[in-house]
Each structure stands twice: as structure tokens, then as C-alpha cells.
From TrEMBL:
Belongs to the TRAFAC class myosin-kinesin ATPase superfamily. Kinesin family. KIN-14 subfamily. It comes from Brassica cretica (Mustard). Residues 32-95, 208-329 form a coiled coil. GO terms for cellular component: microtubule. SUPFAM superfamilies: P-loop containing nucleoside triphosphate hydrolases (SSF52540). GO terms for biological process: microtubule-based movement. This is Kinesin-like protein. SMART domains: KISc. Keywords: ATP-binding, Coiled coil, Cytoplasm, Cytoskeleton, Microtubule, Motor protein, Nucleotide-binding. It is found in: Cytoplasm, Cytoskeleton.
């Protein structure tokens, strides 16, 4: 017996050592899995860098070829220009010789007319002086206009600064709605006045342009008159020269007296014409002065109208600012009321019409009410001549951007960092834009979906909260529910991710603990430290999901349709060293598979089973919502894996938001109406108020789905 007892002790010690070795081996296996993910991440980074370098080299080669072609063209053009310049130089040399001969002749004539030219130069100097004073007046007016413009811009900057420093007092919802109505009416009146003043300003600008045209015409007329005067003076000088020559010859020959008298009469007539032209020049200058005065008056009138327009713009901006502040206050109070009521918030998003879909006005089935109560929150659907009206927490029209969507849910994402459980899921028929809303379009930063934007906000906020003593640890898991089977999308074992018969060989059980958290046993959990790591994991999960789900198949409804429910879970653990406070937050982002009618999808075989499984799980979700809305004692969460997984999100201890995505295509009106009715039931559910998870106890390493 003693030997047996000793043997049992030895065996027990060996068993304990073996268990210790098994635990260490598990830790090594997990470390090797994380190391493999890191190596894959680094390999992807190096591959992307090599592709970028190759692309850069190709771009440089193309640019060098383009530069070589451009230089050849420039050389060819320079050669052409050189030949043309040589021809032009030869012509100019010939003209220069001819001009030299004519210059000698002109020198002889210039000596005779220098005395007369001096007198005419004095008159021309006076005229130019008058014209210069007029130009100085015009320049002074232009300088004054520029100074007034600068003063006006400085006033605008000062006004905007004052507007920015103003703080508006918070009011109640009822008073805010009344004031909003008055502001909208005032905006309409101000816009009417602004339009009328703009019309007056346009008319004054037109009249000012006419005056400037008249001024230019008068200046051109003055120039032409000066040219004519110069021509007349030149003719008179020529005739005077002829008269002198004839008078010199008249002493020798008395027969030319009649010719001399005739030339003298011509000279006197040309003097009269010269006097008339000078009178016309003086009249034109008087007209120019009158035009300057009218221009100055128009400029004053223009400045007055501009000041009144700026005043109306300031009033309009102030009214619009009040309207925006009132809308922000309304949203804040509405969200507070919804949190106190414990309702599931519902946002509706309508995707744009795609190429090939009926976009005529007659075929439109969706409209948006413009009343103050339903503005931005209401949607109307026409079916068979009957109008169905719905109101949600927010309605996004087709031209709403991904940034507009994220702004509305950013505060909800912040709640996860504060220690709340948050769930956001997208619901709708196949092809309504659920995956685009949640994931966005890869490779386009402006079209990133909610999941990448939420992660960026969380990592940025985590960095900013370090100065307050907060340290956060983040854990990520991703799974899909396909044919009522849970698949781990982050597993490095490909056999565990997918199988040919559509059933995963690895069994993942959903467990609920006493504190209300839900755990998926044996699910891969990855610690993340940056948004780039999460992006890499998202790409990894998308590849697993795409290969296992689509597999070179498409339905008649949508060739990129998601055939499974995708669940992204981020567990947030925060600890404040100064206050020793610890928070637990969970962010669940879910892309549900699209509902579709079997008669419309054209699914057969295995794809028919997929569609039936999707519709069954969504029908179970509808049963749960119906039971919650009626406040029944029993809620059938266990009818499907999806509802059992979402039990914490729908059971009252989570802040939950649902996106209902619909399509405006007329042929999908029936499915859109069903989605809107389901969303209305969801919005009416009261699930209770969410509680913040704060404690001082150490947390386990399992990932909770809330």
C-alpha cells in the first residue's frame, strides 16, 4: 500500500507537470498564431511598397518619353521660327534702306515747318494736359473703389469674428420650433429682398457699363479728331509752302496770280475746317466731363446698394446660424429623450438609382415631406396609388455622403469608449447598400464606411485621452453566420474557416454569463494597437468571407450580394491610473445578409438553401422585435443563431441603432415597404436604458459580444 501511495503521488506530480506543459504549449501556439499574423501583415506591407515603387518607375519612364517628345516639338518650332526671322530680317534691311532715303527728304521739309510745329505743339500740350487731368480723375475714382472694397472685406472679417464669438442661449424644444418657424419665414423674406437688390445691382452694373462704353467712344472720337486736326494742319503747311513757292515765282511771272488766289482761298477754308474740328474737340471734352460725373454718381449708388446687400447677407447668415443651432439642440434633446425611453434608434438611408434603373419622374415612388415636423425625419412611399408615411430618427436622401452618415453616429461610438455596450446593424433587402454603408468602397478614402471611420475615431480619441491618464486595450473578433453556422473569419486555419459542404468543422458555441455578457467559445481574439492593423484584419476577413460565400456565383438580384451575417466586435478596456477607474465597452457593428424573395432571386440548389436560411434568421429577428414591441414575457431569442447572438443588444443593456437601407427602384417597392414597416416596429421597441460598465476588478481575456 505504501508503494501504491508513493506511485500515486509520483503519477499525480507527473500529471500536474503534463498539465503545465499543455498550458505552455497552448500559450506558444497562440503566440505563433499572432506572430504569423504579424508576418503576414509585414509581407503585405512590403508587397504594397514594391508595387508602389514599380508603379513610380513606370510613371517616370512615361514622363521621360513625354518630355522627349515635347523637346523635339520645341526644337522643330524653334527651327521654323529661326527661318522666318531670317526672312523678316532681310525685309527689314531693305525697308531700312528705303527709309534712309525718305529720311533725308523729310529733313529738308522739317526745317520749313519747325516754326509752325512749335505753335501747334503748344496747343497740343494744352489738350494733353486736359486729357491727363481727366485720366487722373478716373484713376482717383478707381483707387477710391479699391479702398472701399478693402474696407468692405475688413468689415466682413470683423463681422464673421463677432459672429463666431457669440454664444446662443439654450431653449426648450417647443420654443425652439416656434422660433425656427419665424426664422424660416424671415429667411424667405430676406432672400426675396436680397434677390431684388441683386436685380437692382445688376441693372446699375449694366448702366455703368453703358456709361463706360460711351466714355470709351468719346475718347476714341477725341483721338480721331486729333488725327484729323493733324492731317488738316499738315495739308495747310503743305499749301502754305506751295503758296510761298508760287509767290516767289509770281515776281517773275504775273500769269500765276489766279492760281495764287485759288490756293489762298483753299488755305483759308482749311483754317475754318481746323477751327471747327477744334470746337468739336472742346465739345467732346465737355461730354467726357459730364460722363465722369455720371460715373461717379453711379459708383456712389453702387456702393450704397453693396452696403445694403452686405447687411442683408449678415442678417441672413445670422438667421441661418440660429437655425443650425436650433437643429443641433433639437437633435441633442431628441437623443436624450430616446436614451431615457430606451428605444432602439432607427436611421433610414435611400441609395441612389443605379445605371439602367428607371429614373423618370413618373416612376418615382419615394418622396420626402417638407413640413417642419417631418423635415429630415420623414419618408413617403407610393404603392398602387396608396401613400405610406413613415417617421424615423433620421432619413438620409440618396445624395447623402458617407461623412454625413458618420457624423450622426459619432456620439454613439464615443459611448463605447465611455464604458457602454453599443450595437449598430444594417438591415434591408439585397442590393439596398448595407455593405456599402458599413464597409464602404475599398481604395476610396471619401467612401469609407462606418466600420473604418468608427475605428479611426476610437484610435484618435484613445490617443487624446492619454493626457488625462487613460490607457485603453482593444480586442477584435470577426465572425459570420452562414446557414445557421458560425465561422471564425480571423482563424489562420483555413479548414476551420470554410468547407466544401458549407459547414465549418469547428463548432463555436454561444455562452451567456451571469453578468449578461455573451461569449463565443474558441473564437479568435486579436489585440490591436492601430487602425492599420484592424484594416489588415478586415481585409483578411473579407477574403475569407468572399471565398467561402460567393465562390464564383451570383444571384439574379445582386452579383455582389452578401450571403451571410457579418459581425465585427471591438472590446474596449480602459483604465485610469490616477482615479483607478476601469471601464468596459463593447462596439458591435453588424452587416446583415440581404432579404430577398425566392421568386425574384432565381436561386436554386445550395443557393436556395442559403436564401432560405437568411430569410429564416431575419424572420426570427422579426419575431423577437414583435415580442419586444408587445412586451411579452417570453422573447424567442433562441430561434436562430443571429437573435441569440444579438440578445444583449436587444435585451435592454445596450445602446442600439439600426440602419434600414432601401432602394428607390420602382420594381422593389414591395420589399422597401416591408423593410420600412419592420423598421417602424423596431423604432417603437422600448428595451430599457443602457448602463455604463465601471469597476475596479481585473478583466478576463475573453471577448464579449455585449
Amino acid at each position: 500500500l505504501l508503494n501504491l501511495y508513493v506511485l500515486c503521488l509520483v503519477l499525480q506530480e507527473r500529471c500536474e507537470n503534463t498539465m503545465d506543459y499543455v498550458k505552455r504549449l497552448r500559450l506558444c501556439i497562440r503566440w505563433f498564431q499572432e506572430l504569423e499574423l504579424d508576418y503576414a501583415f509585414e509581407q503585405e506591407k512590403l508587397k504594397n511598397a514594391m508595387e508602389l515603387n514599380e508603379k513610380h518607375c513606370a510613371d517616370l519612364e512615361v514622363s521621360l518619353k513625354e518630355k522627349e517628345v515635347e523637346l523635339n516639338l520645341v526644337i522643330h518650332e524653334l527651327r521654323k521660327n529661326f527661318s522666318s526671322v531670317q526672312v523678316q530680317l532681310a525685309k527689314e534691311q531693305a525697308e531700312k534702306l528705303a527709309a534712309t532715303g525718305s529720311l533725308e527728304k523729310e529733313k529738308e521739309a522739317r526745317l520749313a515747318v519747325e516754326k509752325l510745329q512749335a505753335a501747334l505743339t503748344e496747343e497740343l500740350g494744352k489738350t494733353q494736359g486736359d486729357l491727363q487731368t481727366a485720366n487722373q480723375r478716373i484713376q482717383a475714382v478707381n483707387d477710391m473703389y479699391k479702398l472701399l472694397q478693402e474696407y468692405n472685406s475688413s468689415l466682413q472679417l470683423y463681422n464673421s469674428k463677432i459672429q463666431g464669438d457669440l454664444d446662443e442661449a439654450h431653449e426648450t424644444i417647443k420654443r425652439g420650433e416656434k422660433e425656427r418657424t419665424g426664422i424660416v419665414e424671415n429667411i424667405g423674406n430676406l432672400k426675396g429682398q436680397f434677390k431684388a437688390l441683386q436685380d437692382q445691382l445688376a441693372a446699375s452694373k449694366v448702366s455703368q457699363e453703358d456709361i463706360m462704353k460711351q466714355k470709351d467712344e468719346l475718347v476714341n472720337e477725341i483721338v480721331s479728331l486729333k488725327v484729323e486736326i493733324q492731317q488738316v494742319k499738315d495739308d495747310r503747311d503743305r499749301h502754305i509752302t506751295e503758296v510761298k513757292n508760287l509767290q516767289a515765282e509770281a515776281t517773275k511771272q504775273n500769269d500765276f496770280k489766279g492760281t495764287i488766289n485759288e490756293l489762298e482761298s483753299k488755305c483759308s477754308s482749311q483754317n475754318k475746317e481746323l477751327q471747327e474740328l477744334q470746337d468739336q474737340l472742346a465739345a467732346s471734352e465737355r461730354k467726357l466731363q459730364v460722363a465722369d460725373l455720371s460715373t461717379f454718381e453711379k459708383m456712389n449708388e453702387f456702393e450704397e446698394q453693396k452696403e445694403s446687400i452686405m447687411e442683408l447677407k449678415a442678417r441672413l447668415e445670422k438667421a441661418e446660424l440660429k437655425l443650425i443651432e436650433g437643429e443641433k439642440l433639437r437633435k441633442k434633446l431628441h437623443n436624450t429623450i430616446q436614451e431615457l425611453k430606451g428605444n432602439i434608434r432607427v436611421f433610414c438611408r435611400v441609395r441612389p438609382l443605379l445605371t439602367g434603373e428607371n429614373s423618370s419622374e413618373e416612376a418615382k415612388t419615394i418622396s420626402y415631406p417638407t413640413s417642419l415636423e417631418a423635415l429630415g425625419r420623414g419618408i413617403d412611399l407610393m404603392q398602387n396609388g396608396q401613400k405610406h408615411c413613415f417617421t424615423f430618427d433620421k432619413v438620409f436622401v440618396p445624395n447623402a455622403s458617407q461623412e454625413d452618415i458618420f457624423v450622426e453616429i459619432s456620439q454613439l461610438v464615443q459611448s463605447a469608449l465611455d464604458g457602454y455596450k453599443v450595437c449598430i446593424f444594417a438591415y434591408g433587402q439585397t442590393g439596398s447598400g448595407k455593405t456599402y454603408t458599413m464597409m464602404g468602397r475599398p481604395g476610396n478614402p471619401e467612401e469609407k464606411g462606418l466600420i473604418p471611420r468608427c475605428l479611426e475615431q476610437i484610435f484618435q480619441t484613445r490617443q487624446s485621452l492619454r493626457s488625462q491618464g487613460w490607457k485603453y486595450e482593444l480586442q477584435v473578433s470577426m465572425l459570420e453566420i452562414y446557414n445557421e453556422t458560425i465561422r471564425d473569419l480571423l482563424s489562420t486555419n483555413k479548414e476551420a474557416v470554410r468547407a466544401d459542404n458549407g459547414v465549418s468543422p469547428q463548432k463555436y458555441a454561444i455562452k451567456h454569463d451571469a453578468s449578461g455578457n455573451t461569449h463565443v467559445v474558441e473564437l479568435t481574439v486579436v489585440d490591436v494597437r492601430s487602425s492599420r492593423e484592424v484594416s489588415f484584419l478586415l481585409d483578411h476577413a473579407a477574403r475569407n468571407r468572399q471565398v467561402s460565400v460567393l465562390k464564383n456565383w451570383k444571384t439574379a438580384m445582386n452579383e455582389q450580394s452578401s450571403r451571410s451575417h457579418f459581425v465585427f466586435t471591438l472590446r474596449i478596456t480602459g483604465f485610469n491610473e490616477s482615479t483607478e477607474q476601469q471601464v468596459q465597452g463593447v462596439l458591435n457593428l453588424i452587416d446583415l445578409a440581404g432579404s430577398e424573395r425566392l421568386s425574384k432571386s432565381g436561386s436554386t440548389g445550395d443557393r436556395l438553401k442559403e436564401t432560405q436560411a437568411i430569410n429564416k434568421s431575419l424572420s426570427s429577428l422579426g419575431d423577437v422585435i414583435f415580442a419586444l414591441a408587445k412586451k411579452e414575457d417570453h422573447v424567442p431569442f433562441r430561434n436562430s443563431k443571429l437573435t441569440y447572438l444579438l440578445q444583449p443588444c436587444l435585451g435592454g443593456d445596450s445602446k442600439t441603432l439600426m440602419f434600414v437601407n432601401i432602394t428607390p427602384e420602382p420594381s422593389s417597392t414591395g420589399e422597401s415597404l416591408c423593410s420600412l414597416r419592420f423598421a417602424a416596429r423596431v423604432n417603437a421597441c422600448e428595451i430599457g436604458t443602457a448602463h455604463r460598465q465601471v469597476n475596479n476588478r481585473p478583466l478576463d481575456n475573453r471577448l464579449s459580444l455585449g
